[in-house]
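User: What would this chain look like folded?
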Amino acid sequence: MNDDIIKGNWKEIKGKVRQQWGKLTDDDVSKMQGTYEELAGKLQSSYGYQKDQAKKEIDNFLTKNKLKDK
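Assistant: Here's the prediction, encoded as structure tokens.
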């Protein structure tokens, strides 16, 4: 479900992803192509998050940006 939300809104949210997680480069964000698992993986490697924490951060991001309900 979250993967569909991210993929469907990727053009809209990729700038917000860069704002939220400044350690991610433009290249990192471009290569993700809007997949939830790739975003979670990049958060894990860039921020040292555990998998559950990365997913929680993404879910919070989607809720904050009112994308969770779409």
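The chain has a mean pLDDT of 90. If you want, I can go into more detail on any region.
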